[in-house]
Design goal:
Blueprint: H1 2-23, E1 27-30, E2 34-38, E3 47-52, E4 56-62, E5 66-70, E6 76-80, E7 84-85, E8 89-92, E9 97-100, E10 109-113, E11 118-121, E12 130-135, E13 141-145, E14 149-150
Antiparallel strand pairs: 1-4, 1-7, 2-3, 4-5, 5-6, 8-11, 8-14, 9-10, 11-12, 12-13
């Protein structure tokens, strides 16, 4: 009886360990003023896009010198690892995103943020649909709805 329970617990542990890596996405941000995104993990492949500082990218594959990434539109490309930063950012994907003082629609509004604006992520924790961010230009901290940003 104890052996069956033990094997069930071990099985559950391995299932959770296997799926936990795929449940939470790993993100980076661009750390230079401009960075090129390539078709493959080599500077000799086709240049696809230019992204700017702070732009969040989801890591799909992590190699020593290159990272395979996905952008907010779902496009897959490669970036050189030395252009990637572990400091987390998010980007607004809706127009006129409200920034609130507290994580509540009843809280005072601190401002409105335009579409495609990069914000520093103060915490990766999403609480009741809210995420704590800071504007890069003015340093204003507050909360936005998680469904209005990309990079989590």
């Amino acid at each position: 009886m104890l052996i069956k329970i033990f094997f069930k617990l071990i099985s559950i542990f391995f299932i959770l360990a296997f799926f936990s890596g795929s449940v939470f996405a790993d993100f980076i941000s661009v750390k230079t003023k401009k960075a090129l995104l390539y078709e493959g993990p080599s500077a000799s492949t086709k240049k696809l896009y230019i992204v700017t500082e702070g732009y969040p990218l989801e890591i799909m594959v992590n190699l020593k010198d290159w990272k395979k990434v996905k952008d907010h539109t779902g496009n897959i490309s490669w970036i050189q690892s030395n252009f990637a930063d572990k400091n987390r950012t998010v980007m607004t994907i809706k127009g006129s995103v409200n920034l609130y003082h507290k994580a509540s629609l009843q809280s005072s509004k601190l401002g409105q943020i335009s579409k495609f604006v990069v914000l520093n992520l103060n915490s990766t924790l999403v609480t009741d649909g809210w995420v704590n961010v800071q504007s890069q230009l003015e340093g204003l901290s507050g909360f936005v709805r998680f469904d209005k940003v990309w990079g989590l």
